[in-house]
């Protein structure tokens, strides 16, 4: 099963968001992996362990910032991620959710295409009458590029159980080989896209469902989506997905045909895999991790440039308005508050007040506070006062 | 099996003047419109009045008897009802098809959903399908002429969507060149309009046939299980006491039994209810809910979660005990007054609090209870 996990880099500290002309400058900020996306990786790992296949992560953003934060996800021991693709291009800056989904959806389609084209290449060699040696050489090349599963070709010592292996050994005719390749090709078409429920920065949760829509339009097949998935399982025979999600006060249990997209809720925890056909899982694996992360630019996408980045966005975000702290803040046993009302007071060339009983004096100049305190107009904020104000 | 997907709409310029009426997607709860939906009608009413258009309530589901009248009583001018057994299980894909067909045929000026799990996904996917933008989690709307300096263009009577941005700010969002303008409303942002049955005489309730009734989907709903309603109501409480991860340890870092904090909170709740008659409930931060603390099993559940990912609250008073106050937590609390009890003076909750108590809650709450106990009752 081809599993595509969407992983976003988000600002490490939301207090340090850099903007120029209202566009978030992601290359000028420290980033972390969006915490919700870790659940997408967990679910991807689960699916791969249960049915075999390959995990490709897809991220969009400045590659210089994304590379270091994605590397740990890619560690040999950490996860089953086989490939990481970073979609990085200044043309994508300033994307709203629609333009983001447009770019990401096209990249998802490209990933899918990358994994079906090798089958078409092999089938074409077979129908064009290429020699078995030629076909085996091509299969080895595709296998080394991590683009066809063990089942189609592998170099595991002592095993020649692959489709191309059988062709080489004369166990399968050319026609039978073509049929087997067509079947395997159709399995790649049942791919799954996984994502976190929302990002920690934009918080819209919109991109997931929109990516499903983009891929639907690209493939000409409706790709369903389900958000807030908490329970996930897959039938290794049919590749049918069983998902459970909570919407309001309801639990909805779904059966989904791949290709499909799911966003995982933070509550999701991968099920224990009790029994699995390891032989089949290993057959469905690919060669393994590709060492280098791949950078894709917008040109790779075969997309309409007018629909990318700021120009392709439908919404315009105005300047952010900082929500102020409460007008008055009092700290128990520390703040100074007025014990009585005090008229406007001129102090060192400025005017302050008027003040009512109970008003907080903390922001006033120290010398003025000293003076007011000497006059008995200020006192420390007590629990008694706090209690009264709470229930006032 | 799935059928063919709709063809991508082109990005040809839309004629903005063709789009009329403000639609709101209504949801139900126990045979009535949900309280959030009544708030949504109030928000929609404001937009429709400012735009000089009609407010249209959308009801999609099955066995919807009586709901359209409720929508009219609370502000709708027109209600479009699609009442069909095929909509009973809330199949997202069918809902989107239904909304798409209605949108393409009737061309609304704006569609507002609730920012619930369901509303969010419908808004997002529908927006992409009908080739427009989406702004989620709005807290307010205004219809204004919008001038964009970059395009040097004036967009008359555009919906200004106001939403929280990066946790601590609000941002205004416009969808100037596409229609409909699609948005979701954060529950708790508007007060429902009073019920007015006299509105029924001028309102129109229209039944709409389910589009593409024979279509089958690659996603099917196998089961729909209703969870029991919690026996508390954070949303409508006058006072909410929130418990955070800080209840697991004292200020000196020593482990504490969180049950003791829960007992203190309960004592405080009962005192406030008895003395001042203020409905008080106990909630918890996401951190504490997700920690699945053994001692709090069955006591603090997911229904207790406060903040943007849990219940959004707007009480008169919020008492935060051992809550650090992350941006999503603070963003979900719109209290008249906040009192924060946290021994860490740099905890972000203190930024949002009118009353800061830098102390160990296990020392402070008993003193607060004594103090409140000694105060005179409300006259």
Describe the structure.
The complex is a heterodimer of chains A (392) and B (379). With 392 residues, chain A is α/β, with parallel strands linked by helices. Chain A has two domains: 2-312, Rossmann fold, CATH 3.40.50; 336-390, no CATH class. Chain A is built from ten helices and 19 strands. Chain A has helices spanning 37-51, 63-70, 97-127, 132-144, 163-168, 174-189, 207-219, 278-284, 366-374, 383-390, and strands at 2-6, 9-11, 19-20, 23-24, 31-33, 54-60, 81-87, 192-196, 225-234, 241-247, 250-256, 260-264, 294-296, 316-322, 330-331, 336-338, 345-347, 350-352, 378-380. In chain A, the strands form five sheets. A nine-stranded mixed sheet of chain A has the order 11-10-9-12-8-1-6-7-13, sandwiched between helices. Chain A has a two-stranded antiparallel sheet with strand order 2-5. Chain A is elongated. The model of chain A has no long low-confidence stretch (mean pLDDT 90). Chain B has nine helices and 18 strands. Chain B has helices spanning 35-51, 67-73, 92-106, 117-129, 258-276, 286-291, 327-331, 349-352, 361-374; strands spanning 22-25, 28-29, 32-33, 55-61, 78-83, 110-114, 134-138, 140-148, 153-165, 169-174, 181-185, 204-207, 219-226, 239-243, 280-284, 317-321, 337-341, 355-357. In chain B, helix 3 packs across helix 4 and helix 5 packs parallel to helix 9. By secondary structure, chain B is an alpha/beta fold. Chain B folds into two domains: 16-207, HUPs (Rossmann fold, 3-Layer(aba) Sandwich), CATH 3.40.50; 239-374, TPP-binding domain (Rossmann fold). In chain B, the strands form four sheets. Chain B has a seven-stranded parallel sheet with strand order 7-11-6-1-4-5-12, with helices on both faces. In chain B, strands 15-14-16-17-18 form a five-stranded parallel sheet. The interface between A and B is large, with 79 and 92 residues.
